[in-house]
Write a structure and sequence with these properties.
Number of helices: 8
Helix content: 25-40%
Number of strands: 8
Oligomer: single chain
Strand order of the largest sheet: 1-2-4-3-5-6-7-8
Low-confidence stretches: 1-21
Distance between the termini: 55 Å
Shape: globular
């Protein structure tokens, strides 16, 4: 009987210790990051924040959903939950209810909100990473490489701890090219192409693509050129991953493993 009670006590202590070590997370939904603008902007420009409670100086991933800049909605990726990271999931205005530049401007405004507000939740403004899939990857690239978007909100793009686009455009976005009467198969590199702003002093850049034979319209190859030109320009922390066997949609799930590894690596190298 004494052995039974001893075993029971040990189990209770183990469960109590496990419960103490388990991190609790809080989610706050539909926070407005714009307080002025038209009705659509006020309706759409909202974000959710998911963060570890009673924790200080945690890292944060600002996450932009995909959808070709004309669809999609914010969500907290399950792969980033319970990982010690905060997630700021962003809704931005969508075409055709806005013009193309509004999508990029909203992305910048949401990142600027994170820089202003994250410390109120316990996070560090020095540990803010930006990521997204497809259209979200394009927005990640644009606001991280072309500094004018964040400068409009008094934030230096180089303050971002890392850019981690998943299968985002490096050339001008296809929605922008379509608005110019161009075909999806006609590439361009102009002021709306991240490649236009290749520079050695950009934040750390981790590019993730699906299988080149399964991706959309040469998405791997344009990102490979993006990676190469960043290296040629002298950028010291640029990585490119191709996820064999994964197409444009399915590549996001395994890409989160790469994201978490690089967040850890970047923070350890500081």
């Amino acid at each position: 009987m004494r052995k039974f009670y001893l075993l029971l006590c040990c189990q209770f202590l183990f469960i109590a210790a496990f419960a103490q070590g388990k991190q609790n997370y809080q989610t706050i939904q539909d926070i407005s990051y714009r307080t002025t603008g038209d009705e659509y902007a006020l309706q759409r420009c909202k974000l959710d924040i998911y963060y570890p409670e009673n924790t200080k100086d945690f890292a944060t991933v600002v996450w932009f959903h995909g959808g070709g800049l004309s669809g999609g909605s914010k969500f907290i990726p399950v792969e980033l939950q319970n990982s010690g990271l905060a997630v700021v999931a962003v809704n931005y205005r969508l075409l055709p209810k806005c013009d193309f530049t509004a999508c990029i401007d909203d992305a910048a405004a949401a990142v600027a909100w994170t820089f202003r507000e994250i410390e109120k939740y316990g996070g560090s403004r020095h540990k803010i990473f930006v990521s997204g899939h497809s259209a979200g990857g394009y927005l990640t690239n644009m606001i991280g490489l072309d500094k004018k978007w964040l400068q409009a909100y008094s934030v230096d793009a180089d303050s971002i701890a890392g850019l981690i686009p998943f299968s985002g455009h490096a050339i001008s976005h296809f929605a922008y090219r379509q608005s110019k009467g161009m075909k999806d198969t006609q590439p361009s590199i102009d002021e709306f192409a991240p490649l236009y702003y290749v520079r050695p002093d950009a934040p750390p850049l981790v590019i993730v693509s699906g299988d080149r034979e399964m991706e959309m319209l040469g998405r791997y190859e344009e990102n490979a050129y993006f990676w190469r030109m960043m290296k040629v320009a002298g950028h010291s922390y640029t990585y490119l991953y191709e996820l064999d066997g994964y197409d444009h949609g399915s590549m996001a799930a395994p890409a989160f493993h790469i994201l978490k590894n690089h967040v850890k690596d970047i923070l350890e190298k500081r």
